[in-house]
Each structure stands twice: as structure tokens, then as C-alpha cells.
Amino acid sequence: MAFFGAPLNPPLRDWTGRWVWIIGASSGIGRATAAALHREGARVIVSARQAPALADFVRGHPGCVALPLDVGDAQALRAAALQVQGQAGPQGLALVLYCAGHYRAQSATAFDLAEMQQHLAVNYGGVLHLLAAVLPQLLSAGRGHLSLVGSVAGYRGLPMSLAYGPTKAALNNLAENLYLDLHPRGIGVSIINPGFVQTPLTAQNAFPMPALISADEAAERMLQGWARGRFEMNFPRRFTAWVRLLRCLPDAWYFAAVRRTTGA
Fold first, then answer.
1. Looking at residue 4, what is its pLDDT?
2. How many CA atoms lie within 13 A of 256 on its CB side?
3. Three-state DSSP class for residue 206
4. What is the C-alpha separation between 259 and 264, in angstroms, rounded?
5. 19-262 has which fold?
6. Could you tell me if 169 and 125 are in contact, meaning their C-beta atoms sit under 8 angstroms apart?
């Protein structure tokens, strides 16, 4: 039995020559993580819808491979997974990171069904398409690591997070179930729950974002988490520690605290 502080996954420290596939690598956390892993010697395959952005990344990071795809297209993702399998060869993938995301602020007083469905399709449905494509490979190999980027917005309900928050809450629950099923089979699973990170998505926010960090700093925190065999990574801790604490409050206290803090 693992005790507090003990690694829950096989630590990932030496990336030299190891294959990594990052979905959602055209900007933000995904792109920064791809660059960080490339610096560590990993052989990185980057995917996203924006082919020009991927091509630009590959030009600046020799040895990386661009594989454009739309996570909403299950057939395209299956085909991409086969290409990745051929690229990695018998060595297989050391890490599959799902970083694709969609965000638009939304409230129940201005409900937009199309936006709700778009959040669901990208933030959660795309993960299901990825799992259908890569789980057979990982199970056959009996190794590898699957990592999903969630958000502290998935911990509890927050103002203007009607569309975004539930999809990230789903990822947290999904990751826990995946860990229970895959850990005994030798496959690592982790969930990454950042606070505010400077990305094109958070650039939409018109409100102050406490403890805002750069995408490069987020990537470094993720590499540290993988090296320590963490299941969940949340950062920056000076912000996420308080958000995690809020999960433990009784409902009445929680709602009062959120209204008082945000003015909602």
C-alpha cells in the first residue's frame, strides 16, 4: 500500500530518447511542455488542429514530429494513434499527454447549449476518443503513462464556469477510475489541475487572476510531478492549496465564501 508522499506511479525522470505524444500542443501549456520535454531529450510528437503552429514548433525543435488532428474526429485520432505507434516502434510511448482544451465563460442566466456541447466535445469527448485509440497499445505494452490536463475549476462550482468546470470535474473522476484499472497493469496515470496559467484561453478573462504563472513554469511543475510519480499535480500551491481546502467546506460555507470572494 502506498503511503502519503510515496510515488503512486513509476517516476519519469530520464526522458532521453523516449517517445512522447502531446495532444493540444499548438500553444499554452501543451506547447511549453513539448519544448521542456524536447530539452530533456525526449522524442516529441505534437498534435493539434493548427497545422501551421505545429510546423512552426517543429522548425524550432529539431527531431520533433508534427501530426495535425481534430480531437473531435474519432476516426482521425485512431489513424493518428497508428502513425504514432509506427513512429515509436517497439519502444512504445513513454507518455501520452492530453492538453487540448476549450474555454468560454458562461453563466446559467445566459445559457448557450452550443457552447456547452463544444466544451464537452473538446475537454471530455476528445479524451474518450484518445482512450479508444491508445489504450489497446498501452495495455499490450504493459507500460507507458497517460496524463490528462484538468483544472482547479473542476474541484467545485465557480462563477462563470458553467460550461468549463463540469468537463474538468469529469476528467478528475475519469483519471481516478483509469488509475484503479491501469495501475495494476503497469501503466501510469496522472491528472494535472493548474490554477491560473498565462495562455490564450485565460487571456479571455477580464477579472484579476491570483497567482498567475507562465506556461513555461507550469510545464516545469509537470515534469517535477512526473519525476516524483505523482497522481495529481496542482500548482501554483500558494493558490491551489486554498482551492483544495474549499472542497472540504460544508456547502453553505462554500457558497458563502465564493460569493464573498467573487461578488457573484
1. 60
2. 5
3. coil
4. 5
5. Rossmann fold (3.40.50)
6. no
DSSP letters along 156-192, please?
S--TTBTTHHHHHHHHHHHHHHHHHHHGGGT-EEEEE
CA atoms within 13 A on the CB side of 79: 9
Give which of 179, 74, 177, 183 is closest to 133, Cα–Cα: 74
Instruction: State residue 184's pLDDT score.
Output: 97
Domain ranges of the chain: 19-262
At 1 the pLDDT is 44
Q: Which of 103, 20, 28, 118 is nearest to 71 (CA)?
A: 118
The residues annotated as belonging to the active site are 164
Q: The C-alpha cell of 117 is what?
A: 456541447
pLDDT along the chain (264 residues), means of 10: 74 97 95 97 97 96 96 96 94 96 93 97 98 97 97 87 95 98 98 82 66 88 97 84 82 86 70
- Determine how many CB atoms are found less than 10 A away from the CB of residue 161: 20
Helices 28-39 and 51-60, interaxial angle, to 10°?
20
CA dihedral sign, ordered 30, 226, 241, 257? positive
State whether the Cα torsion 26-197-43-57 is positive or negative: positive
In a 3-state reduction of DSSP, which class is residue 15? Answer: coil
Task: State the pTM of this model.
Answer: 0.91
